[in-house]
Amino acid sequence: VQLQASGGGLVQAGGSLRPSCAASGSILNINDMGWYRQAPGKQRELVASIAFTGSTNYADSVKGRFTISRDNTKNTVYLQMNILKPEDTAVYYCKARIFSAPRWNVYWGQGTLVTVSS
Per-residue pLDDT tens for 10-33? Predict the structure, then answer.
């Protein structure tokens, strides 16, 4: 099982990006999916998560600006990021809890860099 993230890049403050993360391999089910970020010199933090049911959770710093969504038919999670700020600059990692027989495991993507210029 692998998670492949893409869609990061360089954008000016106020702009938008929409990274995606696709899971592939021997997947029987996916539970929670989410995005985390890690800025230089800081700890990795939760940005947003989404359950299989569609229930979502957001960090206070991104509420109203970011929207997480998923396509269960494509095993893919998206993060629509609007009104980006320089403080959003970080490597963004996707995470998913996946059932690949015979057990559930947590997988991480390789990270995609988001740089917001002022």
Answer: 999 999 999 999 999 999 999 999
